[in-house]
Amino acid sequence: MNSPILSAAPDEDVRTISEKMSRARVGSVVILKDNLPMGIVTDGDIVSKVVSKNLTPSAVKAGDIMSSPLRTVESEREIIEAARDMVGHRIKRLGVSYKRNLVGIISISDILAITPELFDIISEKRAIMTSDNVREPSYLAGYCDHCNQWSDVLLEMDNKFMCEECRSGRGGSEELSEPAEE
């Protein structure tokens, strides 16, 4: 999330708000009245409600174009739930609250920035839950510790490297012997 929150009063003009957003390099300003959030003005609001209508930004007040109410999500909720809220309400930003106080803004861009890590976590969780984390065996080439014969398909079993025949119980002597010298 982005914190601290960039804020403005409902009577501030869009030009001033746009300058604040540009300086802070953010795409939204929370509109506060008596330190309580009334709504939010986004870069999209400015484009669709001011610029596209050829209005003068210094003549339009934040309260006239803000989206209200500001939708919020509790800071303890999972990021997936916040993303679902954004999709469900067709918005790109949510206020983040902690103990009923607005502490930040989370945007769709913030969620996209962590998406690769989320995929990794989900994949790992799925593998653990479905036991897909069992890897294919990797074979080694060398002398079998049980029968001393060369094999290209040795696998480790009970701290010994064994060929396929010895692993299946079909081959070699029953006693472990030293590898043959060359």
Written description of the protein model:
Helices cover 34% and strands 25% of the residues. By secondary structure, the protein is α/β, with parallel strands linked by helices. The chain has two domains: 7-107, CBS-domain (Roll); 137-173. The strands form three sheets. Strands 1-2-3 form a three-stranded mixed beta sheet. A hairpin with a 2-residue loop joins strand 8 and strand 9.
How would you summarize the topology of this molecule?
Blueprint: E1 7-8, H1 14-24, E2 28-33, E3 36-42, H2 43-51, H3 62-65, E4 72-74, H4 79-89, E5 93-98, E6 101-107, H5 108-130, E7 140-143, E8 150-157, E9 160-162, H6 164-167
Parallel strand pairs: 1-2, 4-5
Antiparallel strand pairs: 2-3, 5-6, 7-8, 8-9
Domain module count: 2
Flag low-confidence runs: 173-182
In round numbers, the mean pLDDT is 85
CATH hierarchy: architecture of the largest domain: Roll
What is the highest CATH level, the class of the largest domain? Answer: Alpha Beta
CATH fold title of the largest domain: CBS-domain
Q: For the record, what is the CATH homologous superfamily label of the largest domain?
A: CBS-domain
Which key terms come to mind for this protein?
CBS-domain, 2 domains, single chain, alpha/beta, about 180 residues, three-stranded mixed beta sheet, about 35% helix
